What does this fold into?
Amino acid sequence: MVSQDEKLNGSTDKGVRDRLFESAEELFCERGFAGTSVRDIAASAKCNIASVNYYFGGKEKLYHEVWRRHLIMMRDTRIASIDKVMSQNNGKPKLEDLLKSFAEAFVGSLVDESSAQRLCKLMAREWIDNHLPVNMFLEDIMMPTLNAMRGALVRICPGLDESKIPLIVVSIVGQLLHVLHVKAVFQQIDNTDMHKFDLAQSIDHVVKFSTAGIRIYAKGTCE
It folds into this structure.
């Protein structure tokens, strides 16, 4: 329960919950799940220990909530980029426009300085010590995004074999992730030429390369 001190200080439920969330996110990024205790979170948020269980049901559920907020933000941004394109040109956009909008939204959600840095740290920690449900990525981000892309691609390329769409989306995502990784590596190299790596140019390449492959699959039926 919330302490009397917190009530006397005028803290609202939302304020306490937000402080716990922000403190937990920061600690999980820096120390990982195992290295962060409920006591650490409560102390950082200036709350009593019981408040973690009261508002989130324990450390594990709080960890899931931190991740879920990042995943939902990425999912909604990507799906919104698809919906925006599909509403243009009387609902008949070009394939290149769809892929470019999706690629920019995908990359944008991972290069925003504050959010991206936290997400990258969380990913690194989770990779070493897994504590997320195996289906979280699948249910919260992968399937909703895949379904949105499937509907858009079928409309733009009516001759496209739908069984190829999951591989197409995985291919595009894989290329974009590799571009981001290469950019991050180049930024650490003390070489002027390497620092000229152009992210926008790389995205354009991924879009053109992927568009050509999809058109082959669709046998020339794409807009």
